[in-house]
Amino acid sequence: MPDCITRRRLLATAVGQSAFALFAVDIARASSGAEPSAGRPPIIVDSHVHLKHGDAARTEYSARAIVEVMDAVGIHRSVVFAMSTTTQRSIEMARQAAEEFPGRLIPYVYALPHYERPVIREIEAALDTGLFRGIKIHAGECTLAEYVVDPVLKLAGRRGVPCLIDCLGNVGVARRMAESFPDTRLIVAHMGRYLARDEKLVDQFIELAERHPNVFLDTSGVVLVRKITEAVSRLGSGRLIWGTDGPHPQPDLVAFARAELEKIRSLPITDEDKARILGRNILELLKL
Q1: What is the CB neighbour count within 10 angstroms for residue 31?
Q2: For residues 237 and 94, what is the distance between their CA atoms, to the nearest angstrom?
């Protein structure tokens, strides 16, 4: 399990923990929509972090490894979830992580249908605890057909929690979900497709968000970085949400997360826009 950390990163972790204590008040303020305290940088929230990935190796990362990366990079909170496992096991993994690092890790339920029993009750039970703030859905492990995904989307709308959905570039499916569930907030992973280099495809997802105010765009895994700037000009910064889709070992855990953060910080947009994308938008969506 990739859980090792260097001496340099351990030092960064200690510094990061002290910084987090200083930011505690600002986190509460940001969660309520208030501005950060004067002189403080904005709250940074990574809205896309895997306790268990969907890669071929089903790679897992411990909560401690995730928090050490956060501290080294300057990330205050992270949304975490587990893929490539059952809904119930994903709930257990995310709950344990959040309980180990309260105030730092925000758990999502992973919605994966089961032929022997309906998982909608498991999702409801997790949301009932008040600990879980959203739902993760991935087309790589389940169909997004109406008979599978619609009960989950309906539940999310009723409970007021967002769904982070990787639709693998299927804009037609994304459009159907947005139109059928206008009260459900849909966060489209990777602005449509992971590492997409098809500008026309990304444009279709930006247009989808233009037409449907319940659609938000996740910036993780976006390599056409100028499209993020374009999305800000077309949608406003309030419709984009930052995440790393990490942890990722290349070139190393910390460098990967830092590069994703700098991707947003280097955009030719205002500091206010960057603050919204890097944390305020997701905090408002999650009603923390």
Answers
A1: 18
A2: 29
Tokens encoding 83: 């893929």
Q: In the chain, what are the domains?
A: 7-26+44-286 (3.20.20.140)
**How would residue 90 be classed by pLDDT, with cut points 50, 70 and 90?**
very high
Q: Is the pLDDT of residue 60 over 60?
A: yes
For residues 61 and 55, the answer to whether their CB atoms sit within 8 Å is: no
Tell me, what's the pLDDT at 39?
57
Query: Using alpha carbons only, how large is the chain's radius of gyration in Å?
Result: 18
Model confidence band, residue 115 (pLDDT cutoffs 50, 70, 90): confident
Start-to-end CA distance of the chain, whole Å, equals 31
133 closest CA partner among 162, 164, 101, 165 = 162
Residue 131 in tokens: 């600990």
Largest CA distance in the chain: 55
The dihedral of CA 103, 109, 110, 116: what is its sign? Answer: positive
- CA nearest to 101, candidates 140, 62, 129: 62
- Name which of 268, 172, 254 is nearest 6 in CA terms: 254
238 or 114: whose pLDDT is higher? 238
Q: Where are the alpha helices (DSSP H) in the chain?
A: 7-31, 63-73, 87-100, 120-128, 146-159, 171-180, 199-211, 226-235, 253-265, 271-275, 281-286
- Identify whether the C-beta of residue 74 lies closer than 8 Å to the C-beta of residue 269: no
H-run or E-run covering 35:
none
Q: 137: alpha, beta or left, given left = phi > 0 and alpha = psi -120 to 50?
A: beta
Cα–Cα distance, 144 to 137 (Å, whole number)? 9
